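ARCHIVE CARD
CATEGORY: sequence design from structure
SOURCE FIELD: tokenized fold
FIELD CONTENT:
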């Protein structure tokens, strides 16, 4: 009989991972709330209900999260803000991951002077603080449309991903299956796409998951500084920014978007750590309890 251990499917490992279940559960709730919540709300995202009588109204049955200084329903704005914050972070990470993966694959596979030149260019990009660069650009280009904000967050966030992909590619290009593909006449493009890209997909997925939480926090910080999502667009950072000036009298405007930011960032970080445990082959058996691990191996005849 075959004495090699059976590989546990990734989804099965995630289902067994307690932290992964918690992170996925929180993210699923947030996504559903972002998609469905504003449609079920009786109020609009920027609707001013009664600027005189409902200004800074505390939480109540009709307004569970209260209202802000413009008499807008905070619960509705938090739900609408979930759409903006999650969409901006997801699209920006997709862009940065694509750029970083392509750059790292080419540098790691080419090697030599090409790799040296590309890494020196990358070192130059890394020497510029990302937050200061974003603040400078967004201050000069204000107000920035959401599409522009996504592009800026994406093109300034791919540097670390490219270094990770380059290291993985340089290690994988020396393996036998790459040499065999080259001997069979496979082109460089086919080797990169069909052989090396799947090999680096695991670390890239982990990095992208962790990056979503970081970009959500970064977007919230930029909106808090007034250079993020343009008013009156409801993002968690802009809601927080608009309420912090009146924090003593309407603490609820700051509290609820703040909880949403913390919960979302924590959920993506926890999920990223769980994915790192699951996708790392060296931890495949270490993450399985000993009794279950013993049943995964079939003794030889």
């Amino acid at each position: 009989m075959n004495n090699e251990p059976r590989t546990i499917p990734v989804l099965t490992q995630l289902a067994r991972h307690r932290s992964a279940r918690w992170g996925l559960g929180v993210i699923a709730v947030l996504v559903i709330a972002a998609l469905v919540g504003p449609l079920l709300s009786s109020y609009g995202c920027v609707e001013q209900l009664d600027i005189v009588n409902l200004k800074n109204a505390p939480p109540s049955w009709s307004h569970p999260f209260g209202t802000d200084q413009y008499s807008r329903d905070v619960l509705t704005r938090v739900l609408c803000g979930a759409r903006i914050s999650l969409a901006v972070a997801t699209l920006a990470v997709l862009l940065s991951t694509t750029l970083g993966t392509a750059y790292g694959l080419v540098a790691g596979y080419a090697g030599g002077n090409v790799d040296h030149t590309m890494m020196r260019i990358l070192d130059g990009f890394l020497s510029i603080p990302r937050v200061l660069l974003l603040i400078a650009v967004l201050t000069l280009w204000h107000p920035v449309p959401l599409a522009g904000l996504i592009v800026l967050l994406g093109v300034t966030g791919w540097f670390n991903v490219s270094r990770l992909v380059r290291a993985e590619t340089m290690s994988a290009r020396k393996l036998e299956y790459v040499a065999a593909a080259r001997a069979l006449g496979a082109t460089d493009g086919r080797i990169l796409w069909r052989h090396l890209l799947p090999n680096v997909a695991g670390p890239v997925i982990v990095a992208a998951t962790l990056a979503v939480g970081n970009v959500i926090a970064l977007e919230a910080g930029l909106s808090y500084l007034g250079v993020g999502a343009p008013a009156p667009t409801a993002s968690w950072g802009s809601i927080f920014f608009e309420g912090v000036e009146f924090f003593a009298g309407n603490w609820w405007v700051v509290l609820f978007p703040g909880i949403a930011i913390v919960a979302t960032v924590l959920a993506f970080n926890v999920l990223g750590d769980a994915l790192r445990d699951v996708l790392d082959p060296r931890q495949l058996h270490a993450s399985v309890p000993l009794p279950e691990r013993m049943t995964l191996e079939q003794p030889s005849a």
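CARD ANNOTATION: The domain at 14-44+71-296 is CATH 1.10.3720.10 (MetI-like fold). The CA atoms of residues 184 and 278 lie 33 Å apart.
SHELF: design records, drawer C
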